[in-house]
Design a protein that fits this description.
Layout lengths: L1 H7 L3 E3 L6 E8 L2 E8 L10 E4 L1 H6 L4 H10 L3 H17 L2 H4 L4 H14 L4 E4 L5 E7 L5 E7 L10 E4 L15 H14 L1 H13 L2 E3 L9 E7 L2 E6 L10 E5 L2 H14 L9 H9 L33 E2 L8 E2 L1 H9 L5 E3 L2 E5 L6 E5 L5
Antiparallel strand pairs: 1-2, 2-3, 3-4, 5-6, 6-7, 7-8, 9-10, 10-11, 11-12, 13-14, 15-16, 16-17
């Protein structure tokens, strides 16, 4: 019996001469589980006690009654261990997260790849050695991070890669590819986006950006302050960053209409050899307020209903069109306010009502946010 037990489970060995205490590991689907089996002096399997690691306890949750039945029907220790491994096989098949545990060669492969790439590139690795974050620096000195989620059969299976980019990160992968290939392709992608980030960096540095509050490298939109309650939202094409971006002027009609007319009339003057910011100045015939000339508080006017500037991530973008009023509101606040008035009417998704401050006509689209 003992020889058969050792042959089938070479990592599970007796700890005493009486051979009533066995400790070690049992292997199922290339994964080792720590166990300790305590037998009574007469070696009756029915009275045996089993202690196991927390991973095995979690895996066997819901299978305890089956394991007890198998224990009572086992003739000896060999039979009991075999029955336990059978139950484990069933449990593993029902839990994909356990079934996908990598074999030992996975870890040796990973260490070899990191040694070739350079440990200085590693920013983070999780406790399961499945998710890594690698850093990279582009030619302008910008720091970037790519997150790599490796598959259990790495490198046979292509990993999932993600980064703070305005475009999807699609990598070319073969069974002979390594982390170094990912890092190299990441650097090439970063260089292809250098002009895009140069455009947005200039806007961030030389204008007051109202939205997003904390731009990421993936953000392609900037809402730039022009004046009090007047701004322009530009959407830059990451692949053609120097071309005319999508523009949307926001503010009261009496201020926005002349700017919109200039934009339409001067659109042909757009020069791809100049920066996007300089082109916007020339086309709109304006100078943008900058951190060097203005305080941001000049453009951070509070909502006239909730008296706050930011409502979740939104800023006031609905403005009364009366030139003597010009009070800004959050879209959600104005919609809720108008909806509660008996004089308010609605046509399709547009709500018509009166300004809470000057009682002049004002409209707002129905709020689509919960």
């Amino acid at each position: 019996m003992e020889r058969l037990l050792v042959k089938e489970n070479p990592l599970l060995l007796p700890l005493n001469k009486e051979k009533t205490v066995y400790d070690g590991f049992i292997t199922v689907q290339e994964r080792d589980f720590r166990v300790r089996i305590l037998l009574p002096p007469d070696h009756q399997i029915k009275l045996a006690k089993l202690h196991c690691c927390w991973q095995l306890k979690q895996l066997l949750r819901g299978y305890g009654h089956i394991l007890k039945q198998r224990l009572h029907h086992s003739a000896d220790l060999v039979g009991f261990v075999l029955e336990m491994k059978t139950v484990l096989e069933v449990a593993l098949k029902s839990k994909p997260e356990y079934r996908s545990i990598p074999p030992p060669k996975y870890y040796s492969q990973l260490i070899t790849e990191m040694e070739h790439l350079g440990w200085d590139k590693l920013v983070f690795i999780d406790t399961e050695f499945r998710t890594l974050s690698l850093k990279a620096e582009d030619s302008t000195g910008r720091q970037h991070v790519v997150t790599v989620k490796l598959k259990p059969k790495h490198p046979t299976e292509a990993p999932e890669c993600s980064a703070d980019l305005p475009v999807p990160m699609a990598i070319t992968w073969t069974s002979k590819s390594t982390l170094n290939h990912i890092h190299t392709q990441f650097l090439l992608l970063l260089e292809s986006l250098a002009d895009f980030w140069k455009v947005l960096d200039e806007i961030d540095e030389k204008t007051w950006v109202l939205e997003p509050e904390k731009p990421s490298r993936a953000d392609t939109m900037r809402r730039i302050a022009i004046g009090n309650n007047v701004s322009i939202k530009v959407e830059v094409d990451s692949r053609h960053p120097k071309m005319l971006p999508e523009c949307c002027l926001l503010g009261a009609d009496h201020v926005v209409t002349p700017l919109r007319n200039k934009l339409n009339a001067n659109m042909h003057l757009w020069n791809p050899d100049c920066s996007v910011l300089q082109n916007l100045r020339d086309v709109l015939e304006i100078e943008f307020p900058s951190p060097a000339t203005h305080e941001k508080s000049s453009f951070s006017t509070e909502c006239g209903i909730c008296y706050s500037y930011r409502l979740n991530s939104d800023i006031p973008d609905q403005v009364c069109n009366d030139s003597r009023c010009g009070q800004p509101f959050h879209q959600a606040c104005l919609y809720e306010w108008l909806r509660g008035l008996p004089s308010t009417r609605q046509s399709f998704n547009i709500v018509f009502g009166e300004c809470p401050y000057c009682s002049k006509p004002i409209t707002v689209k129905m709020s689509t946010k919960p």
